[in-house]
Amino acid sequence: MRNWLISTLPGLFLCLLPLSVLAQDAAAPPPVTVAKPVIRDVVDNDEFVGRFESVDEVSVRARVGGYLQEVHFTDGMLVKKGDLLFVIDQRPYAIALEQADAELQSAEATVTYAAAQLKRAERLVKSGGQTVETLDERRREWISAQASVRAAQATADRAKLDLEYTKITAPIDGRIDRALISAGNLIQADQSILTTIVTLDPIDFYFDVDERRLLNFARTARGRGDDLQVGGGGVEVRVTIADSDEKPFTGKLDFAENRIDRETGTMRLRARLDNPQLILQPGLFGRVEVEASNTYRAILIPDESIGSDQNERVVYVVGADGSVSAKPVRLGSRLHGYRLIHDGLDGSETIVVNGLMRARPGSKVTPKLIELPQTREGAVPDAVDLELAQ
Predict the structure, then answer these.
(1) What is the per-residue pLDDT across 76-133, written as a single tens digit (0 to 9) for each?
(2) Rounded to the nearest 10 degrees, what angle do helices 91-127 and 132-165 cross at?
(3) How far apart are CA 285 and CA 366, in angstroms?
(4) CA-based Rg of the chain, rounded to a whole angstrom?
């Protein structure tokens, strides 16, 4: 019996050894990733949804009536100012111009004849061969003939202008719509819309701002010595679109309406952005970030370091001995990839940035300190948790 116990004790000890090691490991504080908050100069941003609109938009109409004869563009193409777009049947206007030129020549001949008659009458009056009344009549005829020439010249100029108007050209640079009227249709002067052209570069972005944030923008502009109503105060904006692969487009506020809408309590603002690659299109929705403050010192932390306790947002702070405590915080907007903290932290704390599920107030953890970059594009990757788990 004694020999049996001696022979089995080593095996029993080997079996119990892993259990004791596991018990010791289970009692060790769980690992978490910690870091100091980022402290840097920032400017608050507000976000709004708006829509892009062209700076200039023209509805192309004909200045003269007639049958549409030719269309000289492809639907949707980019056009330059002066490019030929449409041609109206020119034959009636060419005939009208010939008639006006003929009437002008006749009026000029009448002036020549009246001038000769006037000179002859002046000589005869001096010699006593004609009366003064006849001289006055010849002078009246000459003046009337000159007026007829001016009228004929105006008619000819108008006929020439009408003939030029049969060729309809692009009034601005931009992208043209489809042809709304096909060749062969009758066009009414100044009424029929043939197509539309919109400019694309630069392009405007319109959005509505409520009263509270409008007053904040105005205060920010005044702090820079600018006026929100004049040139938008020069406030910087960033506009993002639905395509996540496109980087934000930058621009500046350049206009604010002169009154608040009584029904909505909002004011419409406009930002102007460069669009050299013509990515932005009129009617496209976007989300704009607007500078809502002057530069100030701020405390920033990652979104994933923020927990919740009932209706409060909290951050877990780790002490020098590894103990965990929860601090309520008041959150702000998202800046430079972080969340702005308005109240609750002074920036000297060491906070849990990864592994919140293993941190509990009153317990202890094994902290692994990292340094957060001043700016980041995304969140801290989950690979940190996997590394700690291993």
Answers:
(1) 999 999 999 999 999 999 999 999 999 999 989 998 988 888 888 888 878 777 788 8
(2) 160
(3) 48
(4) 42
357: Cα within 13 Å, side-chain hemisphere: 3
Residue range of the domain that includes 269: 46-55+199-291
Domain tally for the chain? Answer: 4
Q: Is residue 1 part of a domain?
A: no
Do residues 97 and 70 both lie within one domain? no
Report pLDDT digits (tens) over 224-250.
Answer: 666 665 555 667 888 998 887 788 899
Is 152 a domain residue? yes
What would the two tokens of residue 38 be? 């980022």
Please tell me whether residue 277 adopts helix, strand or coil conformation. Answer: coil
Residue 212: both structure tokens together:
């509270």
pLDDT value at position 26?
A: 53
Contact residues for 364 (Cβ-Cβ < 8 A; gap 6+): 29, 321, 322, 323, 324
pLDDT given at position 294: 67
Asked whether residue 21 is assigned to any structural domain, the reply reads no
Output b/e per residue, 143-159; b: 16+ Cβ within 10 A. Answer: eebbebbeebbebbeeb
Cβ 324 vs Cβ 360: under 8 Å: yes
Q: CB neighbours of 339 closer than 8 A, spacing ≥ 6? A: 300, 301, 302, 303, 306, 331, 332, 333
Choice between 218 and 267, residue whose per-residue pLDDT is larger? 267
DSSP-H helix ranges across 128-230 = 132-165, 211-223
Q: What pTM, to 2 d.p., does this model score?
A: 0.64
